[in-house]
Design goal:
The chain has 599 residues and is an alpha+beta fold. 42% of the residues lie in helices and 26% in strands. The protein contains 19 helices and 21 strands. The chain has a 5-stranded antiparallel sheet with strand order 6-5-9-8-7, with helices on both faces. Strands 11-10-14-13-12 form a 5-stranded antiparallel sheet, with helices on both faces. A hairpin with a 5-residue loop joins strand 3 (103-114) and strand 4. It is rod-shaped and about 155 Å long.
Length: 599
Amino acid sequence: MTDITDQKQHQRELERERSKPLTESTDEYTLLIVDEDGVVQTWSAGARDRFGYDTEAAIGMSIDRFYPERDREDELPDRLLGQARIAKEGGHEGWLLRADGSRFYADIRYAPLGTDDGEFHGYAMIVRDQIERRRQRRRTELFVEESGDAIAVLDTDGALTCVSSSAEQVFGYDPERLAGESFFDYIHAESREVLMEAVHRCIDDPNSSIRIECRLQVADGEWRNVEGLCQNTLGDNAIDGILFYFRDVTEIKERTRRFEGIFNQTFQFTVLLNTDGTVLEMNDAALAFSDLNSGEMEGEAFAELPLWRHSEQNRKRVVEALDRAARGNLVRYETKVTGAKGIRMIDLSIKPVLSSDGRVSLLVFEACDITDQQRRGQHLAVLERVMRHNIRNDLTKLYGWTQMLYELSDDGEGAEIYATVRDILNKWEEMTEQVQQIKQLLEVQVTQETKKSLGAAVRAAVKGVRESDPDSDITVDIRGVTDVDVPTIVEEAIEELLSNAVEASDDTPVTLTCDRSSEVWVELSIQDDGPGLPEAEASVLESGEETPLSHGQGLGLWLVRMIVTEIGGDVSASVRDDGTGITVRIPVESPSSKLPEGQ
């Protein structure tokens, strides 16, 4: 018999030296070697930092000292070593103690150590600090439990396998009572099929995430509006089901309905905008005014909408206004836009909405259509000024000529004076008829209620002029636009312009041409070779403006402008040395919406 005690001791020393590199701890874990009784055999600097014991105190210490009292009473250290001996691995997550009595949360694993010949040499004890991981897990748990959202896990049949405690706060149900019940039984019949389809779609598509709205019955029997999100987490072993986040949005829905009621009932049109000038929402009045579709406008740049297509200058101005409002300024001005009824004048404002921290979070665009109000005020003011000016001048003339009748002898000059007075009175008779036409236009608001083809309107206007002046020379070219519809009242404007051109041309040809400039506009041009339209008359046509020192000679051109602007078009004049060109832009409709000709 040979005493091998010293040999064994030496072999253990060698094994300890070999394992030193392994027992040097990292930031992620600490590795110790303990014998079969759980007594510490190695101690590294990392272990000292982790547990707070120096090497002299730690070597020979039982691992029981690292466990809280309750774990020691439950003989947890011995059970873990026994598990490692039998199953080749043992471990758990839990609290460990430091030398000063403080605790840290860790993942502890034990593995048996042995030589190639199968001789047992104790256990490797691997300690991973899980403090941060536990902190994150606890944050998640608190979020789930305290969140305003209820969270449920459904199996593939719709049965509840797990429900967060927040479900009780939100809906009044005990989460434990809900376990095993069909979630579909709590959904209103009108919404049940929608939820079932969403769950089945989630099952079929592992990557799906489906948002739904439904009505859910709460504990007191009331039905509440619920907004939820289904996600497929069947492949996640920790969840193994359909994850369903849902929240009570009943009050939000009610506030939304009230807001939409107010938003859409106002007579002025309103647009909610992001601070970058893109559209969030347009109310019904705005959509009707612009003939736009709500769904298509969301996210579009407001300054690029068809409202501003008629004028690049107006579009740039609204871009500048949006920028000023985004910087916190209230903007208000009057401008022209292209609406469903053509070019209209609006009074607009852009208001910034500030958040609680004082930053601009939203822009509100509001506008009123002041076209009719402005036109009528302008028309009546000018009508009064023209009438007053012409009456005063003509009455003065009549007074003077009448005086001369008494002073002159009857040598033929009296007849000439009478002819002059007669012409003046005839002019007044014509002006009275035009005033009556303007009055009817203002009172009846003839706009686009009756239609006829442009070809029919032009032919009727030319016929009227030729009946009044059989010697008139009018050339017409309206090929390609005869099938478009225009308001019937346009015929009067065309006839008035042709009559003026024929009178000014002095037996030279007058040309009328039409061109389809776009899908929504047709341009009508009348050219003559006369002496040129006086500046005052051109001003009446183009801007509707007169000055106290510059007056049009009659109401005919005012009638033209009123008709054209009333239907949403515009008119311009080009005066040359050898004649005048008048261009009228008229909004048109497609042939599919035509009424019978002349209706």
